[in-house]
Structure formats: structure tokens, C-alpha cells
Write a structure and sequence with these properties.
Low-confidence stretches: none
Bound molecules: adenosine-5'-diphosphate
Strand content: 5-15%
Strand order of the largest sheet: 6-7-8-3-9-10
Structural class: alpha/beta
Radius of gyration: 35 Å
Order of helices and strands: HHHHHHHHHHEEEHEEHEHHHHEHEEEHH
Distance between the termini: 76 Å
Number of helices: 19
Shape: elongated
CATH class of the largest domain: Mainly Alpha
Helix content: 55-70%
């Protein structure tokens, strides 16, 4: 009960804007309940009057019943309309709030969870929280209506009432048992469902690679195994439903028959008039439905509690850690930064950066070279505070990045990697994402610098062409050029190129190289390039190996002083020839 109360308080935060509608909705329900209690009493009156030939009375009562039923229909209509609006508004609020909390999660936490964890919670669980107020209104309304009928039976005959009470209690215990068994199974089902959703997400994203690898069969076999497993769990849940359903229905039939015997006994004993026995019998169906409503309510409340817990886990839980930032805000940084004895690992098994120290001055162009997996991209991620370091310190403009706010760090650094994500928007809107007030002139200039303008001009809708999810309708090179154009539009003080031109042909690479060189001296530029020939003009080159800086200097200095760098360069020259 305590859990339900705190979860309701949580859900109320998202629904309280709709309190007028909720109030109106409750009012409609109360009217409907009152009518539901009185109509059967009036109907009973009709039967009694009919048996005593009071036809005029019957006509009056029938007209009253008709009018009251019309009112009930109207209250139902308005209750339904308002409940749908309350649901819609609450649902979108919770989804928005959860979506923004997910975006605040630490990257380590995102890496460790499948996308299904977030998709399921954003869709299913939020929906279950949003519907709780309507569920309470509707189900409690139905229960109260039936409780009203209970009191009517109490007034008619106490023995029949006691019998019904025992009957409802037995049915309630059965339902209670069913709901707790169902809940346990549902918890496991949702965990499995997250895994299947995550896997389906991968299937959709990796569809091209699956086809190219000719891995359709093994992928489908894996999906099949997971779906079969999920369906077994679903079946286990429905078994609980079915088994307890059978038990409940048989019990109801048994108790129903018992009630008929009891009514006959009471009539024979002259403890009950036939008309009253008929009224009680009329009510029977609605009395048993009280158990259904209570059971459905219990299921919905458990569902709601489970969904709330799963959403709480993301919003407040220890398991889902949020990124932390400082308070200091600098609108435009100078662009120098320094790593002081930085050590970092993604997980406890392996140190990725080991006591690294270096400084980059504002407007300097520095290249990072080294074998794949040496830790170069990790340095970029740490500078953007995508991950928190284990020890040491990173400063931007002399200030520890732990003290800087999110906008100062992310708004002043652009990272362009080899596989940039392009959104399913037009080219213009993809560029506008980073600068809302982008002018046509700025956009064309950036695209010209990124060698993209000519290509865009040939597209049927030019800059307004929609380029598909993940930029599917673009080649790898075009995607990279669009990402570079995005960076040229954004023009932050620090620009990180992480293998950003790897998918380009030599000619385009050379033109972009030139565009990057034009940015040099005005911006701090860091480059990771697998082709050393593209970075030989950098002010400085850092040679990284196994998470350490093995050497640094200009290209000429490294050629002279570092054997490994020299070997790397010569190997590349050989490959080119
Ligand atoms: P480089 O850019 O030099 O090729 P990276 O910095 O990308 O190397 O990776 C360094 C090491 O960190 C690699 O061994 C890689 O497997 C590991 N790594 C990179 N990203 C992650 C991640 N998100 N989670 C766990 N390990 C990672």
C-alpha cells in the first residue's frame, strides 16, 4: 500500500495539470454510480407494481428509468472523453520526462544495457503509469456501484447478504493468489521482452550487414530462440490466467446454485417474499462482477507498481547513473586543454589510458597516431566528458572539466567520427540541428568547404531532400562530408576529427584537408587519421601506444627520433606505391 501511494504521488506529478478534467471525470462517474444503484431498485419496484396490477405506477417509473438512463449515457460519454484526454496528456509528459532522463545517463550505463531496456520503458511502462488515474476512476467506480448493491441486499435479507459476503471473500482470495503469481511471471516477461526488443533493434540497424555477411539464417535462428523463450513466458502468464479463471468460474457457478437453493429455502420458510427473491437473483450477476473488478484492479495496480519501479530505476535509481556536470559556464572558450596524469578504463578488466599527460594550446593542430585500439578515440571521448576519468584531471582553459557545465563542454567541442549519425531529416534540417538560425549563405558555404554542395545541388529537392534513417540514402563518404559540413556550421573552438575522412577518395580527402587547414590557426584541431600523410603538417603529433604517449613532436622530429613511428610511416609509403 505504501509503495502504491508513493508511486501514485509520482504519477500525479505528470497528471496534476489535468486536475480539472480528472475532477469532472470523477463527478461523471459518481453520477453514473448513483444511477446504477437506483435503477435496479426502480426496476424491482416495476416488478412489484406489475404483480399488483398498478400499471400507471409502472409507466411513471419506466419513464423515470428511461430519463435517468439517458443521463447515465451522457455522463459515460463525457467521462470517456475526459479520460482519454487525461491519458494522452499524462502519457506524453511522462514519455518526455523519461526520454530526457535517458539522455542524461552515463555512457557506461548506456553501453551496458540493450536498447530494449529503454524502448520498452519509454513505450509500455509509461503507458501503464499514464492510465492509472483512469483505471482507478473506472474500476473503483464499478466496485462502488456493486458495493451499493450489497447494501441493497443487506436491507432485503441479512442471511442472503451473509452468504454473498462469504462468496465474495472466497473469490477474492482466489483472485489475490492469481495476481501475485501473475506478477512474478510478468516481471520475468518484461525483462525477456526488453532483450527481444533490443535484439530486434539490432536486426533493423544491422540489416545491411546481416545480408552482406549472409548471416540471415543464424540471425533468424537466434531471434527465433529468443522469441520462443519469450512466448513460453507469455504462455506461462496466460496459464496462470486460465487456471485461476477456470477455478473462479466453477466457484461462481457453484455459489450461484447455492444461492438459488438458499433463496428457495428462505421463500419456503416465509422469510423472503418472492419479489425480493427475484431482486436478489437479479443482482447476483453484478455481485460476482465485483470480484472481477477487484481482480482487474489488483492486476492493474500491480502492473502500475511494476512499471513505476522500472521507470524510477532510470529516473532515480543507483543502477542507472546520470552524467554529472559542474556549474561554471563559459559561453566561448579559448580552446586550450590539458590532461594531467589521466587514467581510465571502460571496465575493471583493462586500463585503456595509463597515466597520460599532455597539453594542447588554443589554435594548435595536434594529431594522434598509433595502432588501432591504442586509446586515441578514448582521449576524445574523455575530453567531451562522455565518460568520467578514474584518476587525474582534465582542464579546458585551465578549469577542471568537472567544474564546467554541460553546455560549456559539449557546446564548445565538435567531434566528427568515421561513422557519423545522420538523422532522418532533410540536409538543411540536419545542419540546422546544430545552429537553429542557420542562413542559406552559411549553409552553402559550409557545404562547399565540405565538398558536398555539388552533390546536394544534383538531388531532386536539393537541400530539402530527406536522407533516410541513419542517412541510408547517402554513401559513407557523403555521410562523412555532411558531418564535416555540420562541424563547419557549428564552428566550435575545439574540433575533433576522428578518422573523419577515412571513407573519402583521395581527391575529396585532399580538398577537405585543405578546408581543415583553412580552419587551422583559428581553431584548436585534433585529428586521428589512419593515413599519416594527411597529418604531417600538424603542429604536433602524439604517438600513442597501449594507453601511453610514447613520443611527441613534429612529423620530422618523430621520423628522426622514434623508430616505431618511422616504421609506421614507411609501411604506409610502401602501401601507397
Ligand atoms: P583507437 O581509437 O586508438 O583505435 P579506442 O580508444 O577506440 O582506440 O579504444 C581503446 C580500447 O578501448 C580498445 O581496446 C577498445 O576495445 C576499448 N573500448 C572502446 N570503446 C569502448 C566501450 N564503449 N566499452 C568498452 N571498451 C571500449
Amino acid at each position: 500500500m505504501k509503495e502504491l501511494w508513493s508511486n501514485l504521488k509520482f504519477a500525479w506529478n505528470y497528471a496534476k495539470d489535468q486536475k480539472k478534467r480528472i475532477f469532472f471525470y470523477i463527478l461523471c462517474n459518481i453520477i453514473s454510480i448513483i444511477i446504477s444503484i437506483f435503477v435496479p431498485i426502480l426496476s424491482a419496484r416495476v416488478i412489484v407494481d406489475l404483480t399488483s396490477n398498478k400499471f400507471q405506477q409502472v409507466i411513471y417509473i419506466s419513464i423515470v428509468i428511461f430519463l435517468v438512463e439517458i443521463v447515465r449515457n451522457l455522463t459515460r460519454y463525457f467521462a470517456s472523453k475526459n479520460s482519454q484526454v487525461v491519458y494522452r496528456e499524462t502519457f506524453s509528459k511522462i514519455q518526455y520526462s523519461l526520454g530526457s532522463e535517458i539522455l542524461k545517463l552515463e555512457n557506461k550505463c548506456v553501453d551496458n544495457n540493450s536498447s530494449g531496456v529503454f524502448i520498452q520503458r519509454l513505450t509500455n511502462d509509461t503507458s501503464k503509469i499514464a492510465e492509472i488515474f483512469n483505471v482507478l476512476n473506472r474500476y473503483l467506480g464499478n466496485i462502488i456501484t456493486n458495493i451499493g448493491i450489497f447494501s441493497a441486499i443487506y436491507l432485503i435479507n441479512k442471511t442472503a447478504f451473509c452468504y454473498l459476503l462469504v462468496m465474495v471473500l472466497i473469490l477474492y482470495l482466489v483472485e489475490h493468489k492469481k495476481v501475485s503469481e501473475f506478477y512474478k511471471k510478468d516481471k520475468v516477461f518484461r525483462e525477456k521482452n526488453e532483450k527481444v526488443s533490443g535484439f530486434i533493434g539490432e536486426l533493423v540497424r544491422g540489416m545491411r550487414d546481416i545480408k552482406m555477411l549472409d548471416a540471415e539464417e543464424s540471425f533468424m535462428a537466434e531471434l527465433d530462440t529468443r522469441i520462443i523463450d519469450l512466448n513460453k513466458q507469455r504462455y506461462a502468464m496466460s496459464s496462470v490466467d486460465r487456471n485461476y479463471g477456470l477455478l473462479r468460474d466453477c466457484l461462481i457457478d457453484f455459489l450461484d446454485t447455492g444461492m438459488i437453493f438458499l433463496l428457495i429455502y428462505l421463500v419456503v420458510k416465509n422469510d423472503l417474499a418472492i419479489a425480493n427473491a427475484l431482486v436478489i437473483h437479479n443482482y447476483m450477476g453484478r455481485v460476482t462482477s465485483i470480484v472481477n473488478w477487484v481482480s482487474l484492479l489488483m492486476e492493474k495496480v500491480k502492473d502500475f507498481n511494476l512499471s513505476s519501479t522500472r521507470i524510477f530505476e532510470i529516473i532515480n535509481g543507483d543502477e542507472f547513473k546520470k552524467e554529472s556536470f559542474g556549474q561554471k559556464h563559459i559561453t566561448k572558450i579559448n580552446g586550450d586543454f590539458e590532461f594531467f596524469n589521466v587514467t581510465f578504463s571502460y571496465n575493471e578488466e583493462k586500463k585503456i589510458l595509463d597515466d597520460i599527460s599532455f597539453k594542447v594550446n588554443a589554435n594548435e593542430t595536434v594529431a594522434f597516431v598509433g595502432k588501432s585500439g591504442a586509446g586515441k578515440s578514448t582521449i576524445f571521448s574523455l575530453l567531451c566528458k562522455m565518460y568520467d576519468i578514474d584518476s587525474g584531471k582534465i582542464t579546458i582553459d585551465g578549469i577542471d572539466i568537472k567544474e564546467l557545465d554541460r553546455k560549456t563542454i559539449r557546446g564548445n567541442i565538435t567531434i566528427i567520427n568515421q561513422n557519423p549519425y545522420i538523422f532522418n531529416l532533410s540536409i538543411r534540417d540536419n545542419l540546422r540541428l546544430v545552429k537553429e538560425d542557420l542562413t542559406e549563405k552559411e549553409m552553402i558555404k559550409a557545404c562547399k568547404m565540405a565538398c558536398l554542395h555539388e552533390f546536394v545541388e544534383k538531388l531532386p529537392n536539393g537541400y530539402d531532400t530527406i536522407i533516410g534513417e541513419g542517412g541510408v540514402s547517402l554513401s559513407g563518404g557523403q555521410r562523412q562530408r555532411l558531418a564535416i559540413a555540420r562541424a563547419f556550421v557549428q564552428k566550435t573552438e575545439i574540433i575533433l576529427f576522428d578518422e573523419a575522412t577515412s571513407a573519402l577518395d583521395n581527391e575529396t580527402q585532399a580538398s577537405i584537408q585543405k578546408a581543415i587547414e583553412n580552419l587551422q590557426k583559428d581553431y584548436t584541431i585534433l585529428i586521428i587519421a589512419h593515413r599519416l600523410s594527411t597529418i604531417i603538417n600538424s603542429d604536433r603529433i602524439l604517438f600513442i601506444d597501449e594507453g601511453k604517449i610514447k613520443a611527441q613532436g613534429t612529423h620530422q622530429q618523430l621520423l628522426k627520433n622514434n623508430k616505431e613511428y618511422k616504421q609506421l610511416y614507411e609501411a604506409e609509403l610502401k602501401k601507397d606505391n
